[in-house]
Amino acid sequence: MTESQPGASKGAFADPEYAEAVVDLLGAIAYGELAAFERLADDAKLAPGLADKIALSSMAASEFSHLAQLEDRISELGADPYEAMEPFRQALDDFHAHTAPSDWYEGLVKAYVGDGLARDFYREIAAYLDPETRALITEALEDSQRSAFIVEKVRAGIAADHRLGGRLALWGRRLMGEALIQAQRIAAERDAMTALLAGGVDRPGLDLAAIGRMFTRLTERHSERMDELGLEA
Amino acid sequence: MTESQPGASKGAFADPEYAEAVVDLLGAIAYGELAAFERLADDAKLAPGLADKIALSSMAASEFSHLAQLEDRISELGADPYEAMEPFRQALDDFHAHTAPSDWYEGLVKAYVGDGLARDFYREIAAYLDPETRALITEALEDSQRSAFIVEKVRAGIAADHRLGGRLALWGRRLMGEALIQAQRIAAERDAMTALLAGGVDRPGLDLAAIGRMFTRLTERHSERMDELGLEA
Question: Which member of B38, B51, B82 has the closest CB to residue A41?
């Protein structure tokens, strides 16, 4: 077992703290999809034309495709899906309130960078979970491949106006900063999830050095995404 | 051939005016789905709780499920999907701007009544079209069955507060009135669609008496829906 695939066994659910942590995580992802839906649907209003509006709206709609599965799984684990989502509502709503795009391009970069960050973060955590939960999360976070259109649009925008590149690079850093602030807040408030990362008697966990490496990986992937958009990280 | 199923044959596309009218109609339905998505996503913000918000948001997301097919068909007919939608933008945006719900219940009634009206209207027109177009439209307007939750919520709301029933009954009439105003505006502006209803040399059409009967049917179905919600039409 390597650090990147240290997963818990299915038997881990015998530990009530493990089950609680999984419910927490699924609740966070589910509310994240709902919040992303709302914000993408809003941000689509900034689109300069119908084709662009439809492209971003359909990314919004696709956030819904896995929500029912997440809700079902939370119920199977004996918890109420809406109660499970509630603790993450404030942090995720605050993230979106503090990163409301002021124009179409900021909306595109946010959709690309924000989505990517969330996906990477949850996948990192999923590596420490039982195979079934891991598969559910991986599927829920599946990239819809629609985001190729974002790369194309942002690069075209920068090619047409070089100042845009500088502004969007700053914007990307602000998104990363806000995401870290809210992630830290969740970590401080949700003991079960933090305990999950720390491991248990029969589950491998992350020590501080491993958490540091995880953040390094997240930052590297963020830089790669910025690079794909033609932006300095 | 009866009045309710008088459909044109597939050969009707040899008539350029027929093809133009079909493009018009598909453009109207496609933009209608986009506009409905936007407004439902907005109206979901009025939900009193997470479960309700998710129910309405997922109705919004489902508006997207057939949009790609409509766009493809418009392209096959040699037209640009976004240009085809454009002429209906103002009327549909105006409809939504003039019927912005002031609370959660108005949003629910609008989703139920507005969706139903649009579906009935397009199905009436689809009866005059070639089988392939008719099938595409019928499928695009398929009821997602999710609306049962609306009936339940509205009835429960009225049971808890009888004044709500009076207010929502007025609201339902206003929705019908605005829908008729915008439909009339579209009919006045879009010659191809009006010509479609009037028929052609080798296509049966509607005379004034038949149009009158169609509106009677639409009004009757509207009354039935209001009745389902526990509201006087």
Answer: B38
